[in-house]
Automatic annotation (TrEMBL), chain A:
It holds the Pfam family Fer4_7. This is NADH dehydrogenase. NCBIfam families: PRK13596.1 (NF010120). SUPFAM superfamilies: 4Fe-4S ferredoxins, Nqo1 FMN-binding domain-like, Nqo1 middle domain-like, Nqo1C-terminal domain-like, Thioredoxin-like. It comes from the Bacteria. GO terms for molecular function: 4 iron, 4 sulfur cluster binding; FMN binding; metal ion binding; NADH dehydrogenase (ubiquinone) activity. The keyword Transcription does not apply. Keywords: 4Fe-4S, Iron, Iron-sulfur, Metal-binding. Belongs to the complex I 51 kDa subunit family. Residues 537-566, 567-594 form the 4Fe-4S ferredoxin-type domain.
Length: 594, 159
């Protein structure tokens, strides 16, 4: 099978055609033959690239991503010689304005490495040919024509790829189990139920590069011997569902899905199933219940899905990012993939960076990178020049890691040993004005709300933990509360049925471990050190700064401020609702929080 | 035809269309209920009964699914449904103030419907568009970077 080092995509938009796009293609072909490059460089037709009215005919050269505009067939020999023989970009034809502003996914920042996100924003997700131009479906072609299922599994095992949904189980091993378990009918499932608040890496991949997931799943199906697959996508992602359906339809038309894929005797098809709003459906057994049209409640494991999965058949379930890695591994080799990352955690990981950092949005970094590098190099440091306090990693069931973990590497084992987890990729950075008890309460509120209620430890335990945390934030904490919380953390974590309950105590456990003094200040001194918990703070007017301008009194929604014009004002704490408006409107910085 | 009978026949039609769209496949119960929910606004008891008959499935099972998922409602909702993202990333960029403004403007709390039946206000978990929070969805339209001051203007677009 042929591999090309470069691809030239020529726009055959009607306007470009009218301006001679076909002459460009013919000329390119002649010149590549003449220069002896025809086996190295492939010429493809594509849809619109730039603005055909002012720029056409135009073409794009990959992998460099150079956009040449306003071409004429006579320019081609010079262009081919300069660009492809001498390796020099021809500036006089190069388009300069291709700066697309993307709020979620900017240009790669220092220390980033894009593998899974490499196609995002670069190809048209609704056009399968764009994906093919980026070596799309080459991995599938290689698999069905040259590799045995065992060979594929071996390649994935060698690459060291581990589950990107967060638990980090070796993907090759999972495939091996699903292959070895006897059964006429087997399924591959993609978990696209990305429910962690603030995490949207998978949505972006599904919307921008859906074929990578389709191709990865098809390869998995070949490896384990499945003929049917399901992508379970959350209903909150309507655009992702649409791009997936278009991608599946196009893949069928091109023979990458359906009967006898690429002329082989391997057949496989895919369907998208939608959730209807339930966080717990991201748990693999709950997800399978939901695909079957039932309540999305988890099932006890074992039996694991590889033994008894969807409709009781052996099933392989991986996350979006895991599947999207597979074509790249097959194409570039296990050796390449395992050269990225650490001893036990290979490859790259996408994260949604949020919170108090300068650069928020999607990032992709090699595993083993330190938290400091992510916060300061990729994230650009803490906003407004404030100090770093903690990073919450791993979603609502992850943990909060403090300053002493800044130089800790981000890999599966290190994070677990620190009490956090890789999770699906939410990474929330918190500055020194964050109250960690309030954060623990916030996450527990979410978990408690999303607990499906099937097992008692999770249903009742998370409720009790939330009650205690709310009490502490309200200034009504009791001396015994910390001990009770610790006990509940142990019980809920060790006796819950599924990952949701087992991980639920993590935010509480880690904040108790690393920020115990804050809990103690709330409980014993009735004081919130970060000045966040409303019941524990007081707004006070500094007598020496107050000019008696009356602005605060006039803006107070509950008339808690008294004082004559030009004399020091006073806030009545019993009436004050701690809305903070007075502090915002004061022109003399005369109001502070105690 | 009386209004009640008219409503009943519309309801049966909605169920029939949804069930046939998914080939009466019991595995597709969730998409079917979603479809009825969308065309009728919510899932009245008669609709659940009809679904159970057509899919030859116990009513208890239909009910168990209808009450499990956030997007399925067994209570009548307003003509326009406002879904407000209550997740952390929206919360920290001013979501709390927007939520307050919504409740003040509509004079209802979360989970309630206005007495004139025009608006329902519900919270929803992360919509994954955290880059433009706070975020809310009215019917199928999404609004990002919302401020409390914009709320009256946004609501005024609907009648």
């Amino acid at each position: 099978m042929a591999f090309y080092r470069s691809h030239i995509l020529v726009s055959v938009d009607p306007q470009c055609l009218a301006k001679g796009a076909h002459d460009i293609i013919d000329s390119l072909h002649d010149e590549l033959v003449y220069q002896g490059l025809i086996d190295e460089i492939q010429v493809l037709e594509t849809s619109r690239l730039g603005d055909p009215a002012s720029e056409g005919p135009d073409l794009m050269v990959y992998p460099e991503g150079v956009h040449y505009i306003n071409l004429n067939a006579d320019d081609i020999p010079f262009l081919v010689e300069e660009h492809f023989l001498k390796g020099r970009v021809v500036e006089k034809f190069q388009s300069t304005k291709r700066a697309v502003v993307d709020e979620e996914l900017g240009a790669p920042k220092p220390k980033e490495m894009r593998v899974v996100l490499s196609n995002c924003g670069k190809i048209d997700p609704f056009n399968i040919e764009d994906y093919i131009a980026e070596d799309g479906y080459m991995a599938l072609a290689k698999v069905v024509s040259e590799m045995t299922p065992e060979g594929v599994i071996d390649e994935v095992l060698q690459s060291g790829l581990r589950g990107r949904g967060g638990a980090g189980f070796p993907t090759g091993k999972k495939w091996q189990f699903a292959r070895q378990n006897p059964g006429e009918v087997k399924y591959v499932i993609c978990n696209a139920d990305e429910g962690d608040p603030g995490a949207f890496m998978n949505r972006r991949v599904l919307e921008s590069d859906p074929h990578a997931v389709v191709e990865g799943m098809t390869i998995a199906a070949y490896a384990i011997g499945a003929t049917q697959g399901y992508i379970y996508c959350r209903a909150e992602y309507p655009l992702a569902v649409k791009t997936l359906n278009v991608a599946i339809q196009q893949a069928r038309e091109f023979g990458f899905l359906g009967k006898n894929i690429l002329g082989s005797d391997f057949s496989f098809d895919l369907e998208v199933r939608m959730g209807a709003g339930a966080f717990v459906c991201g748990e693999e057994t709950a997800l399978m219940n939901s695909i079957e049209g039932r309540r999305g409640e988890p099932r006890p494991r074992p039996p694991f899905p590889a033994v008894r999965g969807l409709w009781g058949k052996p099933s392989n379930i991986n996350n979006v990012e895991t599947y999207a890695n597979v074509p790249r591994i097959v194409l570039r080799g296990a050796e390449w993939y395992s050269s990225l990352g650490t001893e036990t955690s290979k490859g790259t990981k996408t994260f949604a960076l949020a919170g108090d950092v300068v650069n928020t949005g999607l990032i992709e970094v090699p595993l083993g990178i330190t938290i400091r590098e992510v916060v300061y190099d990729v994230g650009g440091g803490i906003k407004d020049g404030k100090g770093f306090k903690a990073v919450q990693i791993g979603g609502p069931a992850g943990g909060c890691l403090p300053t002493q973990y800044l130089d800790y590497p981000i890999d599966y084992e290190s994070l677990r040993s620190a009490g956090a987890m890789m999770g699906s990729g939410g990474l929330v950075v918190m500055d020194d004005e964050t109250c960690m008890v309030d954060i623990a309460r916030f996450f527990m509120d979410f978990i408690q709300d999303e607990s499906c209620g099937k097992c008692v430890p999770c249903r009742v335990g998370t409720r009790r933990m939330l009650d205690i945390l709310e009490r502490i934030c309200d200034g009504k904490g009791q001396e015994s509360d910390i001990d009770t919380l610790e006990e509940l953390c142990r019980e809920v974590g060790s006796t819950s049925l599924c990952g949701l309950g087992q991980g639920a105590p993590n935010p509480v456990a880690t904040t108790l471990k690393y920020f115990r003094d804050e809990y103690e200040a709330h409980i014993k001194e009735k004081r919130c050190p970060a000045k966040v918990c409303k019941a524990l703070i007081e707004y006070v007017i500094k007598p020496d700064a107050c000019t008696g301008c009356t602005v605060c009194a006039r803006n107070c929604p509950v008339n808690a401020i008294t004082g004559e014009r030009r004399s020091v004002h006073h806030i009545d704490s019993d009436i004050c609702i701690r809305c903070g408006i007075c502090m915002q409107v004061c022109n003399f910085n005369a109001i502070e929080i105690h | 035809m009386t209004m009640e009978a008219d409503r009943h026949s519309r309801l049966l039609d909605a169920v029939q269309t949804a069930v046939e769209q998914f080939d009466s496949n019991p595995d597709e119960l969730i998409p079917i209920l979603n479809q009825v929910n969308r065309s009728f606004g919510y899932l009245p008891p008669e609709a659940l009964e009809e679904v159970s008959k057509r899919l030859k499935m116990p009513q208890s099972r239909v009910h168990s699914v209808a009450t499990f998922y956030q997007m399925l409602s067994t209570k009548p909702l307003g003509r326009h449904v406002i879904q407000f993202c209550e997740s952390a990333p929206c919360h920290v960029v001013g979501g709390r103030e927007v939520w307050q403004a919504l409740q003040d403007e509509l004079k209802i709390s979360g989970g309630e419907t206005t007495p004139d039946g025009k608006w329902s206000l519900i919270t929803v978990s992360c919509l994954g568009v955290c880059g433009v929070g706070p975020v809310l969805i009215i019917d199928n339209e999404i609004f990002g970077n919302v401020t409390p001051q914009q709320i009256p203007d946004i609501l005024a677009r609907y009648n």
